[in-house]
Design goal:
The structure is a single chain. The protein is globular, with a radius of gyration of 22 Å. It has two domains: 309 residues, Tachylectin-2, Chain A, CATH 2.115.10; 120 residues, Exo-inulinase, domain 1 (Jelly Rolls), CATH 2.60.120.560. It is built from one helix and 31 strands. The chain is mostly beta strands and 437 residues long. The strands form five sheets. Strands 1, 2, 3, 4, 18, 19, 20, 21 and 22 form a nine-stranded mixed sheet that branches. Strands 23, 24, 25, 26, 27, 28, 29, 30 and 31 form a nine-stranded antiparallel sheet that branches. Strands 13, 14, 15, 16 and 17 form a five-stranded antiparallel sheet that branches.
Amino acid sequence: MVSLILMTFPYPETDYQEDNRGQFHFSSRSGWMNDVNGPVYYRGVYHLYYQHAPNSLVWDTMHWGHATSTDLLHWTQQPIALDPQVHPGDLWSGGGVVDLENVSGLKDGDDDPILVYSGTNGVTVFYSVDGGNTFLTYADGKKVATPGGTSRDPKVFWDPVSETWGMVVWSDEGGNGVDFYTSTSLLDWTFASRYAAEWLFECPNLIRMPIDDGHRWVLHAGSGKYVVGEWDGTAYHSDWTEPQRINQTETFAGAGYYAALNFENMPGGRIVSMAWQGENKGSIWTGNASFPVDLTLHHTPDGLRVFSTPIPELASLRTSSETWDNLTIADSTQQLPAGSTYELEATVDVSQATRFTLKVGREVTYEAQRLDGAELRPVDGKVKLRLLVDRDQLDVFGNDGEVYQSYNVRPTELELTAEGRAVVEQLTIHQLGSIWR
């Protein structure tokens, strides 16, 4: 009976074919969408929750929307997961975990508890005992942690070294920063420490990432700014004085990239992240999610950096491919047939070019060892570019994920332009099918 009360589905019919709706980027069936919330993997199903105003095209009273997938590509809209008429408090952004060991003691049936954390100026817990489809409120909405100042956006993580759960929550007490809490039960939380930084605003996330024979911890904000450091079980430490960017664009709430979170409980420790792209809308929906990327940590000449690459599952959407070899563009422009939903892969010798541009509605320009302003050094005089063009969504990757940029732009005919002499050693365009069944 509880499940029937919690499940609402206020969505009209749609074929997802509005001319600017992404065909391989997730968007809500209707209504407003912003931050990705509590993404988890459980028993073969990816659960994507998100900030949602189901009956509005602008930000309004927040719910948690819900969609599921078995391949991170094809998403099915589900009933609303958290509804303010049923679940208490401000249902703002937060994270989620799968309680495989039932440390919370909330298990009731065959499914492991899935817990999500939300709320402003104090953290509220909601839990599911039916595989992440419906949620109950823990302890009538009791706040399990209350940082000082204004606070929101709790995210929970597991530390296998100290064998404790940690929670990071944004708070403005004394300036921007995050409060850390620890727990062994996922329900009773103890304040552990604070990490302050002016850049560390909203939607924080702490990710344990493999590198060499060990691990480092990446702390990032809603903007995608991050530092690399260590988590000692109670506190976070980094010797970085300035953050880097996961997505090298101008990021802010409502931009082409914001508030990314990674899926918890992933097989093999894989780190898959999705963000909010806020500059796209149609007649019945506003906002979409970025295409999922694999995050990895790499050594570079400038130190450790987070690389982002499109998930390899993308290849299953390819319907046809066309390849051009050794295109020489010297102080000229060349057009190529492309379409509006495709993946482009190119290796370009820029050793004799002062400027090289791919025009796809936006000019993606490589100049002075920078790709649209982000540093990208050539390797043997060459750069590798990969673009995902999806109607009004554009994701740009450079040198196997060293650079990652996301935009909402309207695609145009594909044009290649060079100042000087650029040799496109190989360029392949893969036409991509729709994820909407």
